[in-house]
Design a protein that fits this description.
28% helix, alpha+beta, single chain, seven-stranded mixed beta sheet, 14 strands
Length: 341
């Protein structure tokens, strides 16, 4: 019967050997399950810490550059390094096993973390420690694609003419734009449909899709005064959801002093009108800019479709949700932070 024959009184030593062998195998399986599971959990923590540190460093870098600091400024670069390092430590990384690099030319932060962990069952097999590592990269730069864009636009100011924070713009003019014919007042339709209600909803809350630089967007015919008034100033028909009505800062709310998430802050496409397609009435998106809506000039009486209306806004530098554009993306002061690895 081989190994499974009935053991006699003289086989006690054999039994002990078999039990010992089975214990080693059992402990080996426990080491595989328990210790490897623990190492996997530690790996996930390291990855989370590395991702958080890289993103925090990139955000610090972006805020510094947007505030006017040279990206090669030693103080700024050191603060990015320190901020990322402290973020990693606060998320459980070993201070002695943190490596951080700041790429001043590609605005990229690289974080490498490692850790050595005690094992509970594997020492029986001669293995006392387990190591794990994590790598993360985050970049920052001008936005190349943006969710939540507002269906109005500004013209590309051209190289060297980037606005300064606080500069005032008209996002939607009371007069038709001569470049686009008598029926265009600066409104956009992201879906291509000439739907005024759709325009109003997106002017209130932003587009529920993503707009990308390097694409054409159709203009919306008409002044759309009723829809613009309902979206910006007063909206008696839809729960008072106009942007001004949702702003809690009142008269104290300004472009340089507003609460986070203020509804008067909008991201708009920057368009090259020299690429205007007259047949399709489309403008070409080259980038994105952020504005704070200062005031709104409504028509003489709400409900009069023939009235004129204008949206006045102040230009802002902003760190926004979106995807960083590729090389050559124009910089209009609206940047994003993305984890790339």
């Amino acid at each position: 019967m081989g190994l499974f024959r009935k053991l006699g009184p003289g086989d006690k030593g054999t039994t002990l050997v078999l039990v010992a062998l089975m214990l080693v195998v059992l402990i080996g399986f426990m080491a595989l399950v328990v210790d490897m599971g623990a190492l996997s959990a530690n790996k996930r923590k390291l990855v989370a810490a590395a991702d958080a540190a890289a993103l925090a460093g990139a955000q610090t870098y972006a805020n510094g550059i947007l505030s006017g600091t040279d990206p090669h400024d030693t103080t700024l670069v050191n603060s990015v390094y320190d901020f990322a390092r402290n973020y990693a430590i606060n998320n459980g990384a070993d201070p002695n096993k943190i490596e951080i690099a700041v790429d001043e030319y590609n605005y990229k932060i690289t974080v490498d973390l490692s850790g050595e962990y005690d094992l509970h069952f594997a020492p029986v097999l001669g293995v006392d420690k387990g190591t794990r590592a994590a790598h993360a990269e985050a970049i920052t730069g001008p936005v190349g694609s943006s969710p939540g864009a507002t269906p109005v636009f500004i013209e590309d100011p051209g190289p060297g003419n980037v606005p300064k924070p606080g500069d005032t713009f008209v996002l939607k003019d009371a007069a038709p734009s001569p470049q686009f014919g008598s029926g265009s007042f600066g409104c956009l339709t992201f879906s291509g449909n000439q739907d005024k209600d759709e325009y109003e909803t997106r002017l209130k809350f932003g587009y529920d899709g993503t707009v990308c630089a390097g694409t054409y967007i159709a203009t919306l015919n008409g002044n759309n005064t009723n829809q613009t008034t309902d979206a910006i100033k007063t909206d008696p028909q839809d729960g008072h959801n106009a942007r001004f009505e949702r702003c809690t800062g009142g008269s104290n709310c300004k472009w340089d002093n507003h609460e986070s998430g203020c509804p008067r802050v909008v991201i708009v496409p920057v368009c090259d009108i020299s690429c205007y397609q007259p047949n399709d009435k489309k403008v070409y998106v080259v980038g994105f800019a952020t504005f704070f809506i200062d005031s709104y000039t409504p028509p003489s009486g709400h409900g009069h479709a023939s009235g004129q209306c204008s949206i006045y806004a102040s230009f802002m530098n902003s760190l926004a949700v979106g995807q960083v554009g590729g090389p050559g993306t124009p910089d209009f002061g609206t940047w994003a932070v993305n984890l790339i690895e």
